[in-house]
Structure formats: structure tokens, C-alpha cells
Amino acid sequence: MALRFEVLGRFNRARAAQLTLPHFTCQTPLFMPVGTQGTIKGLTTDQLEEIGCQIILGNTYHLELRPGSQLIDDLGGLHKFMNWKRALLTDSGGFQMVSLLHLADITEEGVTFQSPVDGKPMLLTPEESIHIQNNIGADIIMALDDVVKTTITGPRIEEAMYRTLRWIDRCIAAHKKPDVQNLFGIVQGGLDPVLRDICVKGLVERNLPGYAIGGLAGGEDKDSFWRVVAQCTAGLPEDKPRYVMGVGYPLDIVVCSALGADMYDCVYPTRTARFGTALVPEGVLKLKQSVMATDERPIDPTCPCMVCKNYTRAYLHCLVTKDAMGSQLLSYHNLSFMMRLSRDLHMSILEGRFPEFVRGFLRMQFPKGDVPKWVRNAMVVAGIDIAECCTPAKCPRDAMDAPGTVKRICDCQAPAGAKLVPLLVSLTVGLAVRFLAPRPPEVSPQAWQLLSIFLSTIAGLVLGPLPVGAWAFLGLTAAVATHTLPFAAAFSAFTNEVIWLIVISFFFARGFVKTGLGDRIATYFVKWLGSSTLGLSYGLTISEAFIAPAMPSTTARAGGVFLPIIKSLSLSAGSKPNHPSSRKLGSYLVMSQFQAAGNSSALFLTAAAQNLLCLKLAEELGIIVANPWVAWFKAASLPAIASLLATPYLLYKIFPPETKDTPDAPALAAEKLKRMGPVTKNEWVMIGTMLLAVSLWVFGDAIGVSSVVAAMLGLSILLLLGVLDWDDCLNEKSAWDTFAWFAVLVGMAGQLTNLGIVSWMSICVAKLLESFSLSWPAAFCVLEASYFLIHYLFASQTGHVGALYSAFLAMHVAAGVPRALSALALAFNTNLFGALTHYSSGQAAVYFGGKFMST
Ligand SMILES: [Zn+2]
């Protein structure tokens, strides 16, 4: 490791540090200007030193094209070549290719692109990127990562994150000069806290000299932006520098520094200079404006820079529109401004007046007190009271439009809105039922109206004109606005115990991932059982079942615990994803774990969120399972345990791994456990809390503690003892999302029952079934099979439950199937169809995202 990082002062999460690199000792927080061909446009290296630049960024892609890294190496490295004595950082070159060249494409091998010189296909691999950067010789070099825009979502984000983790190992292996150059890893994972978490952990395990937070500043909303930064800085080691890539707006730098970041780079200060815009403490000054033509003041009277000392706005106005000199002078001033900001951040933290500095900065930028909401949110987490700089904003658009920007995309710009065709179809379903279908005489007009709204809501959940939460809210609004339901009835399910239990269970799952407890438990099982492939698979399966009752999210178990373990086991056995060798070990382990997950989720009521949802919906239809946790376990244990035990063996026979023995796995697990050290305080708290929660779930009924109260007690303990902080809870978006839309749906379903719709429907179905003269066991099989097979149309288990569980349950009851059997069988079925296809559930997306199996 060729750097030393000493924290000299702190304020909460913010830190001022000294970063000693081979060529220069820097003070952080610091901003790094971006050069292209080894130069910052229009400035000499003497000028850069004069301004106070400590590190500048060299652009690997441009340097490789011209003059070529080999030549730079032959001439003694970039420092000598460009006559820059201070520190240098080079990027990996990958981002440039993806952003500059339309024809770039990313594969497991690397970034393929067409040469801009001769159009030939070329390939930049992690090894090649490091080789070039070794030639260039910068103090800090960056790992090649798989960059995706944060504004896209879905499996591509996950693929990129895991690929970035795989590539870092190739970068480390290729790095020839670790004694004089520092390789930084880059955290990817889009806006998904679980993926970011996995990536942070994976990189920290590799003990790199420094870490960058990548994939931001790409048009994501600012609230997501700062939350990702806050989450990553919290997870990265205290004694290593943290670099937020591509961030250069002064406001962003102040916020990120308050959250514990140290380094930044961006083309913004020099690029905006070329467009005639100067950075000033109040925001920006546009020198092209005609009022500048006669303004004799300097750009910024408080700025000590050479430009502000010597030139007037009027003179610069004259130049910026006509002469290259204009943009050079503005670049000089803008970089001076950024260096002054870096120094001010460093000194104010060091001198214990950081909050005052932040307040002064914000007061200057937002004299009306309209500090954007995201900044206010971030400052709460940073522990800086900025109340005195904030008065309520006049309108949200004003508040979101941060100054310091010229043509910045407005953050609050409405997203595209509803998708038209799904919207029309969903609305048509409801309107057709309401106005065209004849209302049966035994159903009241109010009930019929609610049914039509409910059907529109369900149609929207399936077709997705808007995100499910938003669509459910619209349904609720329709019910209240049309006087179909009184407000209190429409919102009744928001105070429902089970729904809160579901919300809290998401936080428990987060605790398992955050403390690393899930990882540790699974690693123990690998150590005990892992010397053969079959044993390994049993170890993983049993630990899944072991963790499941206390970690109620199959997806979090898959992504936060098991996939990373399977990956490292497979890689160390020479089984690589997206490669013929995946069949050696990886694809078998992934498939076996994926199939087992359905069984372990079905085994315990609290092993998956959808289980609780199912029982809640059953309750709305009047089917109440007494002492649910125990009743569930009794009903599920025999088939679920039998299938759990059979799954690894059956798969071993029908989908055999090529590697049968894994003699190294137990030793590797033991080594990993050693590296993890003794069980931490937080893990003990997590263990204790989970034991308490699970025992209360099992026995609580007898002493009058309901399931939700048990969960609330558990969460309170985790918060009190600092295992989870409130931010973790706020960041668990899926918890709040499920809460919102499911409460709406449960509420509507309950009212449909009250208004007699469900009993009417049941009678109709019963009549229909009678006409086929099916016995109840036959009807049961037909209904269960169709409920299962319909899942080919769904990409989410909870979505399927929300849309169809009630209807199928009503049909079961109408066909004469015993009520408790119907409710439980459908709920078990819900777990099983999660393993039906590669898109059928959250865990499917995780496991198939591992790329050990082709879809
Ligand atoms: Zn100046």
C-alpha cells in the first residue's frame, strides 16, 4: 500500500485528513480537476500549483490514444512527461469509452469498442486497463468497473455490481506496482441499498488502499444520491480515503463532505468556464449577460485569485464570447474557487467550526432560506443543525432548483407519468364493470362501485401504468372521492397489525445483512459440511432454513447472504460465472439454493413477507388461523422439511455438478471466520433480539404478546443499541412501498367482504363448480394448479398474492374445500412458485443475476 491516511479532525461523520501519496501530501476534503491529454485546458502546471491543486486527474483513454502509455512510460511516466510534481490519479478508461463511444459494449471479458482511429474492434480488459495505468504511473489508479446509469433499474444494475466485484480481483492480480501506485476499488450497485451493501462489503474484504463511490451524478434524484453516499461512507473503513466520483457542484461537495467523503472530481468547473460561467459564493455568475458589459467589479470581490485581482467583469464579458483567453481566465478562477472551498472544508473541520461553515455556505447560496429538501434531509443525517438557514420554500420547484448550476436538469421534473395503454386498459376494466355490466340485484350499488374500483386497482397492479404504490393510492383516492368508502374505512388497514409486522420484518432482514450475522452462520455450516459438493449444498440449505424464521425476506437472504458465499466458493473452486466452468460447481449450488429457498420460506410463517400477507387476506375473508405461527409450522413442517432434504440430492442427480469434492471449502470457510474475528457486539445483539422475537412469535399468544408487539420490541432493541439506525429503516424503500400498496389492497378487500361482494362471488363460483359436478378434492387440485401456473405471468410473489390470493381463496371455499386448508395451501403454493422461472421472484432475480446459470 503506497499511501498513508491520517484523520486529523472530525465533526460527526465529516473528517479532515492528511493523505500522503508517493508524489505529494494532500489535505482532504479535496477537489481534483480533470485533465484530458495530461493537461487542464489552458492552464500551465505552474498555475495549477499556484492555485493550490494537490491532485489532478489524467484521462487514461485519451492518454492511451495520444501519445500512448508505452511512450509515456519510456519518457519516465506522466509526472515527468507533463512536468507535474504533485499527485496524479488516472481513471480506468472504461467510463470514457462507454460515455463517448456509442459502439461500446460490455462483456465479462471487458469493454469492447470500435477504435476511433481505424474502426477496428478493440477490447479493454481489467488487466489491460491496469497495465496502461501502470505505464502512466499515477499515484492513484482506478479499477475497471462496469458502469451503468443510476437512472436505469432492474437486473442490469445487479449484473454490473457483481461484475465490478469480479473485475476487481482481476485488477488486483494484474497490478504490478502496488508499492508505488494505489489501486482504488469502485462501489457500484445503483440506487439499491442491498446491492451497494454487498459491493461495499466485497471491496472492503479485499483491503484496498482506498475506495470510490461510483455510478452517481448521472441524473438520479438528489435524495437518492446523498443516501447512497451516506450509506457507502458508513460502510467503508475509517482509515481509508473515500472518493465520490464525478461530483463537482460546490453544494454536492459540501454535503458529501458532511457525510464523510474525502475526494471529488468533475469537469464541471472548467467546462462551465468555457461557457462563460464563473463560480461565486452566491452560486454562479454568467459573464455573457449584457449587464456585465459595463460592470467594473472583479468576478468575486472576496476571491484572492490572480484573475479577480487583475480583471473586471466587463473585460471578461468581452473575452468570453470571442477569445480562448476568456475561458482560460475563467477556468483559473473557477478552479481557485474549488481549491478555496476544499481548504475551507478542511480547516473548518480541523478547527471545530464545521457546522458554522456549512451554515454560512448555505446562507450565501440560499439567501431566501430555500435550502433544498434533500440538503436538509442530508444534514439531519450529518448531524448539522441548519434550521436557521431554512425558511419554508415558496414552491417545491424553487426549492429543488439549486443554484450553482446553469443548465442543470431540474430535480423535481415530473417523471414521464402514467403509461398510456396500461392506464386506459386498467380504467376501462373498472368503468366497464361499473357502467356496462348489469348489477346483480343482491349486490348493493355501493358494493358494486367498490368492486369496479377494486378491479381497476388490481388491473393496474398487473399492468403497471404507475408503480404499484402510486396506483394503489389512486385507487384509494377514487374510493374516497366517489363516496364509495368513508375516509376512515378506506385507510383502516394502515393501522393493521400484520401489515406493520411485515414492515418491521424488512428491517430485521437488514440487520442480518448489516451485522454480517447471516454470512457468519452460513460460513459455519460450510466449515462443518463443505468438504464435498453435496455436503456444501446441504450446509447452505440447512443454514437457510436456520436463518429463515428470523430473517423474513427471501430476497435479502439470497442477495445479502447466500449468493456472495456461493460466488466465492465457486470462484475458489475454479467455477466462473458466464463461463463453461460454471457447470463445475456454481450453477449447481445456485440452483439448489434457489429451489431450497422456496421450501425454507414455506416452512415458517415469518420466513417471507408474502406468508403474512396471505394470512392477512384470509382473515379479511373471515378465515382466521388460530395461533398462526405454530399452526403454520405444524402444517408446513412435514412436506417442507422433506422437500428441503430432498432438493440438494435430487438436483445432484438430475443437474449434476462436474466437481464432486471440494476439499478446500472448509479450510477457506475457517479462514474467513478467522478474518471475521470474534462475534461482534452487534451480532450478539442481533442474535439475542432474534431469539426473543422468535420465542415471542411461538409462545407469545399464551402471555398476551402479539406477533407485532414482539417485532416492535425487537426493532426497538436494535435501534436503542445502535445495530440499526433510523436511516437504515428510512432507506428500506421496499418496506414502505409494500406497506403503502398492501394496506390499500387489504383495506379494499376487507370492505368488499363487509359489503357482501365476496359471499355473492362465492355463490356464483359454487354454482359454476356444481355445474361441472367436481368433488372438493378435485376442485382443490384444479384451483391450486391454476394458481401455480398463472405465476408464469407474474414477476413478483407479493404482486401475485395481492392480485389473486383472495379470489382463489374464495373459489376454494365455494368449492367446499376446508377453510384453513385452503388458506394455508395457497400460501405454501405462493412460496413454491417463487422458484418457477428466472423472473418469478426477487430471489430469482438475485440468483440468476449471479450468471452461473443461463436464462
Ligand atoms: Zn477569482
Description:
The active site is at 91 (proton acceptor), 265 (nucleophile). Zn(2+) binds at residues 303, 305, 308, 333. The chain has 855 residues and is α/β, with parallel strands linked by helices. The strands form 4 sheets. Strands 4-14-13-12-11-10-6-5 form an 8-stranded parallel β-sheet. Helix 6 packs across helix 7 (155-174) and helix 36 runs antiparallel to helix 37 (819-832). The radius of gyration is 30 Å and the shape is globular. The protein starts with a strand and ends in a 6-residue tail after the last helix. The model is unreliable at 392-415 (pLDDT under 50). Zinc ion (ZN) binds next to helix 12 and helix 14.
Task: Give the low-pLDDT segments.
Answer: 392-415
Q: How many separate domains make up the residues?
A: 3
Q: In one word, what is the shape?
A: globular
The average pLDDT is 86
- What is the chains' assembly state? single chain
Largest sheet composition: 8 strands, parallel
Number of strands: 16
The total of helices stands at 38
The Cα radius of gyration reads 30 Å
Helix content: 55-70%
Q: Distance between the terminal alpha carbons, to the nearest Å?
A: 41 Å
| Strand neighbour order, sheet with most strands | 4-14-13-12-11-10-6-5
Ligand inventory: zinc ion
Classify the beta-strand content into a percent band.
Answer: 5-15%
SS class = alpha/beta
